[in-house]
Specification:
Blueprint lengths: L1 H8 L3 H14 L8 H8 L13 E5 L11 E5 H7 L15 H10 L4 H8 L3 H9 L7
Antiparallel strand pairs: 1-2
Helix pairs in contact: 6-7
Length: 139
């Protein structure tokens, strides 16, 4: 029941705001948009948001600076990739030893790796590595 709530919550506007904030942190980019500011930037385009071709995304001018009022706009994924200059390899946020038991409990409860990754601002592969014992074995 809790996993269903978390899964549905991440699809709400507040959940989408939270997930984008986590991904920005994971990429080392400041995210200084309140929920209301974020929602105003998205406006009527929010239902078309996504990470696939043809979807819309929040972009930063020149792919530089923080996510903040005056430095963000909405565009297609294709245009954002064209504009992005010299993308750096993304690194995952660091987990603490206290996070690992909670992640393992969520895995046992059947929560998807993708959802767990969004909740903890880590990649799906990092969750799978914890699940298989390739990482965090000693915790």
């Amino acid at each position: 029941m809790i996993k269903d709530y978390r899964k549905s919550w991440l699809k709400t506007p507040k959940g989408l705001h939270y997930a984008q904030k986590c991904r920005a942190k994971q990429r080392g980019i400041g995210f200084f948009l309140t929920f209301d500011e974020w929602l105003e930037v998205w406006g009527y385009c929010l239902p078309y948001r996504g990470r696939n071709a043809g979807n819309l995304c929040m972009c930063r001018y020149g792919d530089k600076g923080n996510y903040e009022v005056g430095n963000v706009y909405i565009d297609t994924m294709e245009n954002n990739v064209k504009i992005a200059d010299g993308r750096k390899k993304r690194t995952n946020a660091k987990l603490t030893e206290e996070d690992i038991p909670e992640i393992r409990n969520l895995i046992e409860d059947g929560v998807s790796s993708k959802l767990i990754g969004e909740m903890f601002c880590i990649s799906r592969q990092s969750v799978n590595d914890i699940k298989s014992g390739r990482s965090w074995r000693l915790v």
